[in-house]
């Protein structure tokens, strides 16, 4: 049996908030709620790069009879006050704001992205690039920039992120010529399309990406179907990485009776192997408020990736490991049954896989390639 090796490589206490982009204008005291869900790529110098999501939260969000949320506006950061009588604060990550015909959320933290350079094997932090941090820079990022996924195609790097604001919950794109210095290209997918990840290579001369549209309404599959309705992974193609056409074929859907029946979503960037495109994805089992997040894998046809050659959704590739977060258990704010894979890199005889552990810290796992035979 292939033996995996994993560990936490970056945790909240590793973040020096003196270098936070919020310090320029926000006077309130903050702390790192989580340093997690890192995009992963290899840099030109051979080292690995984690693009870590830093969720920075107010130390005391409640003052008298209001709860406050951080918002970027006109180049600085402000606090919005919401009456306690009109909110539901049962979830430590967000609170529901009442008084609307639709469900409205505000966040207990604002996220920005921190480049963390590792050695070539992903076992040691080489440098934390605070000077290259990515923070909100446009109105559609007013509530933060989240969950980077990085793909190198040729000599160019492409990074998708979720940008959050009252305007929209969109997918945005950054590009780079070196994996460290990024240019914001703007919105590429509109409202609530999460987990967009570029394939690491083109298909038929076009960019290919995983997407995961979200909504308040889903239609039921017929009785006896292998699938259940809800969030699923779709595919899209683009001639230029900016303009996207969804693929008509259905793709990876939650299967009835599986531990992923709640929902599925993209994980790592699909990479091309001799057997086809290898992709790691997350499946969620219904449990309490958050659910149990596990990592599974699939193998896709090289030329028609909507054709799934192999689907491993019975035995998880990765599960949460409470032993990893035991030394920082006092910082946990969610159940520990969450592992959220966000990147993969070739490590020779093994793959180096990056994940968020418990929405708190960055986990690295070395998985022998024989595991996918």
TrEMBL record:
SUPFAM superfamilies for this protein: Arabinanase/levansucrase/invertase (SSF75005)
Any one GO MF annotation of this record: hydrolase activity, acting on glycosyl bonds
Pfam families tied to this protein: Glyco_hydro_130
Hydrolase as UniProt keyword: yes
Protein name according to UniProt: Glycosidase
Family named by the database record: Belongs to the glycosyl hydrolase 130 family.
Glycosyltransferase as UniProt keyword: yes
Classification lineage: Bacteria, Pseudomonadati, Pseudomonadota, Alphaproteobacteria, Sphingomonadales
Protein keywords: Glycosidase, Glycosyltransferase, Hydrolase, Transferase
TM region(s), chain numbering: none
């Amino acid at each position: 049996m292939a033996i995996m090796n994993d560990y936490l490589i970056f945790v909240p206490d590793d973040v020096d908030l003196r270098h936070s982009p919020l310090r320029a204008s926000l006077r309130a005291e903050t702390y790192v709620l989580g340093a997690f869900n890192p995009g992963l790529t290899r840099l030109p110098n051979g080292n690995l790069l984690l693009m870590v999501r830093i969720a920075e939260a107010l130390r005391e969000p409640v003052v008298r009879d209001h709860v406050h949320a951080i918002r970027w506006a006109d180049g600085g950061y402000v606090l919005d006050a919401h009456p306690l009588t009109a909110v539901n604060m049962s979830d430590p990550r967000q609170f529901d704001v009442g008084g609307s015909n639709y469900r409205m959320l505000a966040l207990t933290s604002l996220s920005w992205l921190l480049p963390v350079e590792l050695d070539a094997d992903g076992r040691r932090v080489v440098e934390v690039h605070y000077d290259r941090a990515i923070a909100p820079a446009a109105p559609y990022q007013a509530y933060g920039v989240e969950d980077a996924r990085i793909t190198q195609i040729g000599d160019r790097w492409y990074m998708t992120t979720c940008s959050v604001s009252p305007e929209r919950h969109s997918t945005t794109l950054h590009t780079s010529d070196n994996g460290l210095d990024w240019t914001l290209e703007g919105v590429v997918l509109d409202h609530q399309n999460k987990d967009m990840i570029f394939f690491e290579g083109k298909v038929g001369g076009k960019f290919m990406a995983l997407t995961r549209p979200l909504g308040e309404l889903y239609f039921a599959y017929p009785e006896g179907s292998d699938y259940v309705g809800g969030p699923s992974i779709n595919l899209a193609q683009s001639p230029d990485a900016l303009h996207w056409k969804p693929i008509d074929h259905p793709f990876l859907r939650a299967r009835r009776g599986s531990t992923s029946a709640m929902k599925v979503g993209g994980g790592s960037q699909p990479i091309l192997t001799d057997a086809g495109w290898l992709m790691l994805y997350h499946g969620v089992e219904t449990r309490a408020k958050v659910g149990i997040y596990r990592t599974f894998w699939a193998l896709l046809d090289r030329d028609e990736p909507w054709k799934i050659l192999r689907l491993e959704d019975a035995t998880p590739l990765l599960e949460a490991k409470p032993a990893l977060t035991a030394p920082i258990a006092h910082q946990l704010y969610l159940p520990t049954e969450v592992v959220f894979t966000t990147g993969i890199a070739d490590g020779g005889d093994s793959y180096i896989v990056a994940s968020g552990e418990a929405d708190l810290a960055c986990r690295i796992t070395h998985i022998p390639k024989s595991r996918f035979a």
